[in-house]
Amino acid sequence: MARGSPPARAARLLGRLAGSMEMPRDVMLDAPRVTVIGALQAYVENHKGILEYTPSRVRVRTRDGLVTVTGSRLKIGRLFREELVIDGRVDRVELEPAEAPGSGEPRS
Amino acid sequence: MIEHLWRFLQGYVVLKIRGASLERFLNRAARAGVGLWDVERLSSGMLVARIPAGSFRTVRALSRAQGWRISIAEKVGLPFWAAALARRKGLALGALLALAALYVASGHVWFVEVQGDEGIPAARVREVAAAAGLRPGVRRDGVVREEIQKALLLEFDELSWASVHVRGTRAVIEARLRSGLDPVPRPGDLVAARDGIVEQVMATRGHPRVKKGDTVRRGDVLISGFIPPGEPLHRELLDAGQPPYVRAEGIVTARVWYEGKASVPLLQRREAPTGARAWGIEIELGRARVRLGGPPRSYQAHRQARRSWRGTLGSWTAGVHWITYEEVELELVELPAALAEEQARAAAAAQLEAEMPPGVSPVEGPYETVEITLEDGTPAVVVTVRAEAIADIATFREIQF
Lengths: 108, 401
What we know:
Oligomer: heterodimer
CATH class of the largest domain in chain A: Mainly Beta
CATH topology of the largest domain in chain B: Ubiquitin-like (UB roll)
Helix content of chain A: 10-25%
Number of helices of chain A: 2
Structural class of chain A: alpha+beta
Strand order of the largest sheet of chain A: 1-2-6-5-4-3
Helix content of chain B: 25-40%
Largest interface: A-B, 16 and 18 residues
């Protein structure tokens, strides 16, 4: 069984710690949290940057992979360091897991 | 809502960002601590975003470094308004001046209105009010209402009442005409209101017909409204195309008598209840009345008292009356002459006082006479009190043509 890179090992350790202490994992692990309000809004916390923004698709990098919001007339209602609000008509939200450890880091 | 208000108070700019890979621009700005909102992609090479006005320098610096072109499409919020106002000092000054002018103007009276009865000479009332200090343009707090009311009542005999009140920039004068006063004086005489001997005649208008020492009787003409042909006014009136009549005015004082008279019988009837009582009932239906029971024939005299219950239905009245009869004995009581005289004197004096008009005091008297007479076969003391006074006896009587 592969033991993984040092950051990945640390993340697994933190995850186990958070689970045993019953603490919210997103807080402990910097894990992304996506909230969808009806078909009107998608709320992404702990994002690592926008990879693509068009009126029909927004791709957002997170630690655990790529979150893709598709829909129509999409716009960025709010963009702060760790918080992103996507307004418009939301049809679909997908999480594409990271292929390799560390791929969640923003490149820009 | 709060967020919108906060953004407005802080001020924000609407930016247009042009260039390639604008997502990177958004990420960089967010990482630099700039909050963005309402970001929209207008085309593949252009974004619109809103940022706080204070973050503009940061955004400009990072876009210059990376080759993005940014421009401000709109500046929104309080700081920009304040700056615009500060630049346009003339506008701000004008607004301030307008406010000040409004404030000053609202402290003045700009309209004077006359309200009240028909026939009030509004134009002249305004003139008099203006002379007394109420005219368009005066300060509201400089208007002394009592002064203006006094001036109006002094100037216009025909007014019985006047009031002034200021509402906003409008002053309203309300006035009432004296009731029963002819706007056009009708000719008439001054005649004697009572008998007397003339003391003084002062005719301010009209032809005097009596002189000092004349005895006049009630109704006699004292000052005539007819101007006889011998007087110059007669000619003047005729020349003016008017009949030779005026409304007589003046004062005619005369020595007049006032009298108070009272009698008190020396024998007085008195009713003394014997204690005997009887009852009766009376039934009333419309105009018909039926009485049951009554005072016994044996009663020499009686008094009665009744309690009634009545009701009406349309024009119909129905009632029941309960009557109590009380037997009395009539007796004659003799009153001491001195007591009777005293009572009569007091009653006569009171009558004399009531007779004399207020403000007139006797110049001679009062004289009194005491007599004993028979009134309806009963002796009585009669006291008459007379006083002489000088009073104006002239009263107006219209000439009937």
